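can u do me a favor
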């Protein structure tokens, strides 16, 4: 007696699902590939970057026309692209106004980069170095430099801001680092350090201003006393406008001498 056995076959794969249209998530990428690097760049970010670069160039060229020495827009363009243009206009553009524009662009780029870094660290789209106290730390460093060092040059102020910001960053990191770094703890500690340094900066500024006002009073006091003694030589005669004509004439002749 034989038993007919049917061959066992592997379970067939499920039939392919009905074709659905691809979902557009609103983020298109294009690939840049060379022999060494390959990257994907969002189309939206590229378009926004190009538009911002055009706006920055236009605003920079427009700002070069402003100032005590008036230069029209065409003259600015001509001074940039034509080396044989008016030397006075080229001097104004390249030595005075172009460095101002480049400095503004670099400062804006640094602020944008700092904001992006802190937004990534704190997972907060509104995050900035001011929340964690780095701005107040830089201000505190500049305040100390302006009080301690006499020249008060730009390099001293920049160095004071840099050292103050780094000191604040180190202080916040040490206080917020408890085995693991937490963005919430970082924000709370940063707010506390910012409040403390802000209060200390205000106290220093108030102390300096009070001291300067006191020195002004010390300087001005003897002058006021001497002037009052000269205007009112006799206390019984009253204030100068109430003098008798003869006394007034005698006082004027004494001042002329």
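np, heres the sequence
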């Amino acid at each position: 007696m034989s038993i007919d056995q049917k061959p066992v076959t592997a379970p067939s794969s499920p039939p392919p699902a009905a074709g659905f249209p691809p979902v557009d998530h609103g983020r298109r990428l294009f690939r840049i590939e060379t022999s060494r690097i390959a990257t994907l760049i969002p189309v939206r970010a590229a378009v926004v970057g190009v538009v911002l670069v055009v706006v920055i160039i236009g605003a920079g060229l427009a700002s070069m026309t402003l100032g005590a020495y008036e230069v029209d827009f065409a003259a600015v363009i001509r001074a940039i692209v034509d080396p044989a243009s008016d030397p006075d206009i080229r001097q104004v553009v390249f030595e005075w106004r172009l460095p101002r524009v480049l400095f503004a662009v670099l400062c804006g780029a640094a602020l944008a980069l700092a904001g992006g870094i802190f937004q990534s660290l704190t997972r907060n789209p509104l995050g900035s170095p001011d929340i964690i106290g780095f701005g107040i730390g830089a201000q505190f460093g500049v305040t100390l430099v302006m009080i301690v060092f006499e020249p008060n040059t730009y390099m001293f102020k920049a160095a004071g801001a840099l050292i103050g910001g780094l000191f604040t960053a180190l202080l916040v990191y040490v206080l917020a680092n408890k085995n693991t770094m937490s963005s919430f703890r970082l924000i709370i500690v940063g707010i506390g350090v910012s409040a403390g340094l802000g209060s200390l900066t205000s106290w220093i500024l108030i102390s300096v201003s009070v001291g300067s006002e006191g020195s002004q009073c010390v300087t001005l006091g003897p002058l006021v006393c001497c002037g009052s003694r000269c205007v009112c030589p006799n206390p019984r005669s009253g204030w100068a406008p109430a003098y008798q004509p003869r006394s007034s004439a005698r006082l004027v002749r004494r001042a002329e001498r």
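DSSP finds eight helices and two strands in the chain. hope that helps!!
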